[in-house]
């Protein structure tokens, strides 16, 4: 009898415990990390500090109730290689080592990913190794290309953007790290709003709209939230700010470094090779003939009465045609990134 009573009491206690467990509110999942837990260190040059991009990111994070501790180490015209190697620029490495940052934003010198991609690839890997020792997650700042002025309109240099995007995406995939596709958001903006430039008059740095675009992209990458509906900053008018937010949100939502590499590889395969380009250079060659065969020039520059048309070739090759008074007189062909240059005197053909 006593044993039955004990068993009955045990069953009652189990039932009460189960009921209590079901009735109690479920423990909420851990909320997004607090501002004391989340922090960001920006390392870069004037593309980072002009218009105070870190400060603008900070304001957007606070407005979106995603406040984080923001810090930066910047120096004009400086590459990731110098920030890593130069003893006088060790401030970035020191801050990373001591700051317990959640994120490390890496921005290389603007031309290096396009013109010396192996340098970017090498030093992103080295910075990634440093960051991971501190349990910090690297984020690549995929920058925008320079621009040219054509018919009083600012145009993004597509060739430079392709090369810049390719290098940063290669780094992101190889190192398995995050990427903020700012340059691709700029590209999307210029396609839709060609009369509202994001570049300063120097055709390199960002104006207020450009910095606001970059800040919106970083907001989306760092928080996983859309920047649509955030306040306007930097003197950008409300309508333009809304348009920028939408393009930033759409770019981040659909961007994949793997897909970007695949797309750019396919585009490269469609380009003519150096041998094909060389066969087009005859004594009677014209710019129109090259346009018809090679497509739109990546760059057109004028200096001292000479106009230079630069055409893209496969594997980062290039054909440059030099004209005076509309007549071609010389050409150079480079078969690839690390190949020599073939100089052709057209008048002697």
From TrEMBL:
It comes from the Bacteria. The keyword Heme does not apply. Residues 317-349 form the Cyclic nucleotide-binding domain. Keywords: Signal. Residues 1-23 form the signal peptide. It comes from Candidatus Akkermansia intestinigallinarum. This is Cyclic nucleotide-binding domain-containing protein. InterPro entries: cNMP-bd_dom, SGNH_hydro_sf. GO terms for molecular function: hydrolase activity, acting on ester bonds. The lineage of its organism: Bacteria, Pseudomonadati, Verrucomicrobiota, Verrucomicrobiia, Verrucomicrobiales. The keyword Signal applies.
């Amino acid at each position: 009898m006593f044993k039955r009573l004990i068993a009955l009491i045990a069953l009652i206690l189990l039932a009460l415990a189960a009921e209590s467990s079901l009735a109690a509110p479920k423990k909420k999942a851990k909320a997004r990390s607090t501002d004391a837990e989340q922090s960001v260190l920006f390392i870069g040059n004037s593309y980072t500090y002009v218009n105070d991009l870190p400060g603008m990111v900070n304001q957007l994070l606070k407005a979106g109730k995603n406040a984080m501790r923001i810090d930066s180490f910047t120096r004009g015209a400086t590459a990731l290689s110098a920030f890593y190697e130069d003893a006088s620029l060790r401030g970035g490495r020191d801050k990373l080592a001591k700051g317990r940052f959640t994120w490390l934003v890496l921005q290389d010198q603007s031309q290096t990913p396009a013109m010396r991609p192996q340098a970017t690839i090498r030093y992103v890997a080295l910075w990634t190794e440093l960051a991971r020792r501190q349990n910090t997650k690297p984020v690549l700042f995929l920058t925008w290309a320079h621009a040219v002025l054509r018919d009083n309109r600012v145009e993004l240099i597509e060739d430079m953007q392709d090369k810049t995007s390719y290098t940063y995406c290669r780094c992101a995939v190889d190192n398995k790290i995050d990427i903020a596709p700012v340059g691709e958001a700029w590209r999307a903006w210029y396609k839709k709003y060609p009369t509202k430039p994001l570049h300063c008059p120097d055709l390199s740095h960002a104006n207020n709209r450009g910095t606001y675009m970059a800040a919106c992209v970083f907001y989306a990458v760092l928080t996983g939230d859309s920047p649509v509906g955030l306040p306007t900053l930097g003197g950008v008018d409300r309508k333009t700010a809304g348009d920028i937010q939408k393009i930033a949100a759409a770019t981040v939502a659909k961007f994949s470094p793997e897909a970007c590499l695949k797309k750019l590889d396919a585009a490269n395969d469609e380009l003519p090779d150096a041998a094909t380009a060389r066969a087009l250079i005859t004594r009677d060659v014209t710019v129109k003939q090259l346009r018809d065969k090679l497509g739109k020039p990546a760059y057109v520059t004028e200096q001292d009465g000479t106009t230079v048309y630069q055409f893209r070739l496969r594997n980062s090759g290039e054909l440059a045609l030099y004209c005076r008074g509309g007549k071609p007189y010389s050409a150079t062909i480079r078969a690839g990134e690390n190949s020599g240059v073939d100089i052709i005197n057209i008048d002697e053909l």
